[in-house]
Amino acid sequence: MSVVALVPAAGRGERLGYGMPKALVPVNGVPLLTRAVQGLFESGQVQHVVIAAPPSDVDQVHTATASLAPAGGAVHVLPGGSERTDSVRLALEHALRVIPDTSIVLVHDAARAFTPPEVIAGVVAAVRGGYDAVIPVLPVADTIKQVDEAGVVVSTPDRAALRIVQTPQGFRAETLRAAYCSGIAATDDAALVEQTGVAVHTVPGHPHAMKITTPFDLAVAEALFSGGQE
Ligand code: C5P
């Protein structure tokens, strides 16, 4: 039974202002995508990684990641779709076609390149333990307001009941397949599964699983992961 991680990495990542797809942006010399794939395999739980790459960069991504797979596993690279959800769908279809014993599927953003392997292992363990869908989360430190279109506060949700969601999000393969076949639209895989009526469970995330989106995030990552802390 294989655990397969899907990595949608086909976005242009323009907010980083690097002039290249975000997944290929280096942090201290190593591309985000390479680091993300390394972390998945370092968890010791993932046998296959399926990357949805920018269509023009499939060969480059393959060259950068192919050697990271452990014995018996592999990195698969295919061109992504026009939206993130299309990229995940294509990667999922590929996984179910070429890795027939896929039992658990993770969906992991390349932008969360520094997710500790322990978080990844925790998600897999929770799915193995019987949950259909599992997401890593952090408590919310800031007060969150709901506002209307004019920016006027409508309500203040109880912070104690809110969580910040990270990746990898883990699913029983059949649960994710059924959700993608349902025709429901959602920007987040757990939200999609949630809308099919499946309970989504949470496990502890980690601050290092932050999403690298802006030049500020990149600067934080460069500072945090320079030298021996990795
Ligand atoms: O743009 P955003 O940061 O929300 O993208 C989230 C993730 O989805 C990124 O890792 C990005 O590369 C990926 N993506 C994709 N295919 C697209 C658009 C985004 O795989 N067409």
Topology (elements, then pairings):
Blueprint: E1 2-8, E2 26-27, E3 30-31, H1 32-42, E4 48-53, H2 58-65, E5 74-79, H3 84-98, E6 102-107, H4 117-128, E7 133-139, E8 146-147, E9 153-155, E10 163-165, E11 169-172, H5 173-181, H6 189-195, E12 200-204, H7 215-224
Parallel strand pairs: 1-4, 1-6, 4-5, 7-12
Antiparallel strand pairs: 2-3, 6-11, 7-10, 7-11, 8-9
Helix pairs in contact: 5-6
The chain binds cytidine-5'-monophosphate (C5P).
Keywords: Isoprene biosynthesis, Nucleotidyltransferase, Transferase
Pathway: Isoprenoid biosynthesis; isopentenyl diphosphate biosynthesis via DXP pathway; isopentenyl diphosphate from 1-deoxy-D-xylulose 5-phosphate: step 2/6
Site (Transition state stabilizer): 15, 22
